[in-house]
Request: fold
Amino acid sequence: MAARSALPKVIAIVEDDPDQRENYRDAITKKGYEVHAYGSREEALAGFDAGLPDLAILDIILGEEVDAGFELCRDLLARSPDLPVIFLTERIDEIDKISGLRLGAWDYLPKPISLDYLAERIASLLRINAARSQSGGASAQSSARRIGDCSSTRMPSSSPGAAIRSPCPARSSACSPSSCASRGTPCPTRRS
Reply:
C-alpha cells in the first residue's frame, strides 16, 4: 500500500461528450493526476473491473441513459464505500442534487465549471479522504454513520447500493419506533 501513495492518484472521469471529456482529462492530467476517461457506463464498468480509481467524476446523463451516473455511483460505492465521488452534470434540480448526495456522492457540481475549481475540489476531497483513512475514521469494516441522534448504515447487498438505510428523523413528527424499524434504523426516541 505504501508504494501506491508514491504513484499519482487515479481519477476516473465518465462523460459522454468527447470535447468536455478531453478538456477535463487535460486539465486534471496537468495537475499531476493519472486520468482514466470513459464515454459510457459500459466503458466505465469495464474500466472499474480492471481497477478502481482514487476518485470518480460522473456525469449523470450518459447518451440515452438518463440515470447512468446514479447507477455507476451505486456500483462504485458497493465496491468501495469510502471512494470519493463527484457528480458533474447539467442536471441541477434540487431533487437530483439530493438524490446524488443521498447515494453517497461527496460533491455535486453544476456544468459548466471552471477547470481550476474542479482541480481544487479534487485535491480537497483527496486530502479529506487521506485524513479520514489515516485517522481510522473511514473503515471498510464499519460503514455505520452517526449524525446527531440518527444513524445510517450501508448494508452488504447483492444489488449494488440497494440497501442504504436512511437515518431516522428523530425530531420529526413522523418518527416512531415502528417507522425506524421499517427503515431498519435504531430509534433514538425509544426508551430502553
Summary: Strands lie at 10-14, 34-38, 55-58, 85-89, 107-110, 145-147, 150-152. The mean pLDDT is 81. The longest strand covers residues 10-14.
